[in-house]
Amino acid sequence: MQQTIFDLLGSEGERFKAKESNDYKWTFKDYPEKNGLKVFSCFACGGGSTMGYKLAGFDVIGCLEIDKRMNDLYVKNHNPKHNFVMDIRDFNNIPNDELPQELFDLDILDGSPPCTTFSMAGKREKTWGKKKKFREGQIEQTLDDLSFVFIETVNKLQPKFVVMENVEGLTKGNAWRYVQNIYKHFHDIGYEVKHWLLKGENMGIPQKRHRIFFVATRLGIDLNRLDLSFNYKPITFEQVKNLNVPEKPLSETLQNLISKAKYGDRNLQNACIKTNGKSSFFNYCFVYDDQVAPTITAHCNNIRWDTKTYLTKEDIITISTFPQDYNFLSESLDHIAYVCGMSVPPVMIKRIAERIYPFLRGEQ
Hints:
This protein has helices spanning 48-55, 68-78, 88-92, 146-157, 176-188, 237-240, 252-260, 269-276, 313-319, 333-342, 346-360; strands at 38-42, 59-65, 82-85, 108-111, 132-133, 140-141, 161-167, 192-199, 210-217, 286-287, 303-304, 309-310. With 364 residues, it is an alpha/beta fold. The chain has two domains: 27-234 and 344-360, 3-Layer(aba) Sandwich (Rossmann fold), CATH 3.40.50; 237-341, no CATH class. The protein has a seven-stranded mixed sheet, sandwiched between helices. Strands 10-11-12 form a three-stranded mixed sheet, with no helix packed on it. Helix 1 links the parallel strand 1 and strand 2. Helix 7 (252-260) crosses helix 8. The longest helix has 15 residues, at 346-360. It starts with 37 loop residues before the first strand and ends with a helix. 40% of the residues are buried.
C-alpha cells in the first residue's frame, strides 16, 4: 500500500486521512435506537432529511408538506406522529394553542424550501417574486420567499437548532442578497446563523450533490465551533452501479447525439452543437465508471457512458442514499427519479445531525 504524508505523522495523521464510507447502502432495519432528541421536518418531500435524522438516532415526530401525493409517500414510509398537509403559510397561521405542545419543544426544526427559482439551470431572476404553478406544491405560489416564511415558522416554534437546506445557486450572482436577508431575518428573531456549502462527494455520498446548509441556534453557541468539514474518499459509479437492464429507452434523437459525444464530455451539449449548431441538452449528463456520479435530477436525464442508457432504478436509489426497501408507491423510473431528485440525500443529513448532536447534549 502506498504511503501518504499522513502516515508519516503517526497517530496524529489519522484524523486527516480520508474516511471510507460504508453506510450509503442501507435499509429501514438499520435505524439505531432513538437518542431522545426531537425533530420536525418542513417541506418534507419524500423524507430524505427525515431519514438522515433517524439514521443519526433522532426522533422525527412530524412533518409539513404541501403536496398531497408526496405526503402520501412520506406517510407510507415514515408514519409521522404529527402530519400537516398544507402550505407552510397556512401552518404559520394556526393558533399556537391548536398545535401539539411538543412542537414547541423541538431540538431541531428542519426545512428545505423548494429551490427551483434559484437553480443555475433555471430562469432564476426572471421568476423571482412571480406567482407560478410549480410542481412542488401543485398550486400557484411564489417560491423565492419561502426561506423567509420558514423563518417565521422558526419564530413561531422556537426550536433549539434550525437546519435549512437550499441549492448552491442561492449564493451565486444576484441571489446573494437573499443570503444576506436570511441572516438578517434569523438575527431579528434572536438566532445566530452560519451557512456552509457542502459537497456530497466529500461526505461519503456516491453523487456530486452540492447544497447550501444554514444552521441557526438560539442557545448562544458560537457556530464557528461547529465543524461541518468532511473528508470521505470519493465513491465512483463503478463501485455502486447496478447491472440490471434499464427499462426506459432513449429516444432516437438522444441516441444520435450520444453517437457524436466523446469520452470526457460532461453532457450532451457539445454533441448538440456539433449536430445542430445549437447549445442545448446540457441537462443530460454522462455518468462515468471512474468518477462520482453527477447530481440526480428530478427528470432522470443522467446517461450511463458504459451502456449508453439511462440509469436504472437501483442506480438512482443507491446514488441518492435512499434505503433499498423504500416504498415509492410506483415502479416508474421517472417517479423514482423525481422523488430522489427532490429530496436531500439522507446520509448528508445524517453527517450534519451527528455533528450537531454534541451541542444539543451540552458536550461542546
